[in-house]
Write a structure and sequence with these properties.
It contains 7 helices and no strands. With 157 residues, it is mostly helical. Helix 1 (13-41) crosses helix 5 (113-127). The radius of gyration is 16 Å and the shape is globular. It starts with 12 loop residues before the first helix and ends with a helix. The mean pLDDT is 92.
Length: 157
């Protein structure tokens, strides 16, 4: 699946690296989704905000390759947001890895404040029929739906 194979050390360290990487991926996707939703709500055009992020300190894989806002073009890439969040890294699997990271952190006594909250946000999406089998970038649309419906996202998520 990867372009590069990296020896990580003793048995199990490769899995630890995968879990740590996917923890960061979940956090960055959630952060990008929230930042994008905030910017849109405050009147910034989605593509303008995406271009600013991708040319400054917020740039990350999610913002460049798998942007969660369907209104944002990602160069020549066609992210799942352009296909109603079909394909990609499904939310159930993203949540599974977030849960593994939280559990590993608890066992190792490592504080994981953002990771725990991120797992909590993705949990109802992963368990639901609507988002569980769609790309995890759909968290943006789920948050947008809560905003439009007038519900408080904190109470629901």
């Amino acid at each position: 699946m990867a372009r590069k194979v990296t020896h990580c050390g003793d048995l199990g360290t490769g899995l630890a690296a995968k879990i740590a990487n996917n923890l960061l991926l979940g956090i960055t996707m959630l952060g990008l989704s929230e930042a994008t939703l905030l910017g849109r709500t405050l009147g910034v055009k989605p593509q303008v905000l995406a271009d600013i992020i991708n040319n400054s300190t917020g740039r990350c894989w999610s913002s460049e390759i798998n942007h969660p806002d369907p209104q944002v073009k990602c160069g020549t890439a066609s992210p799942p947001a352009h296909r109603n969040y079909e394909g990609g890294f499904v939310t159930k699997l993203a949540h599974k890895d977030l849960g593994l990271a939280v559990k590993a952190a608890e066992g190792a006594h490592v504080p994981l404040e953002l990771g725990k909250r991120c797992e909590e946000v993705f949990r109802p999406l992963a368990q639901g029929q609507e988002w569980g089998n769609r790309d995890f970038s759909g968290v943006f649309q789920a948050l947008s739906d809560f905003l439009v419906s007038g519900e408080k996202a904190q109470a629901v998520l």
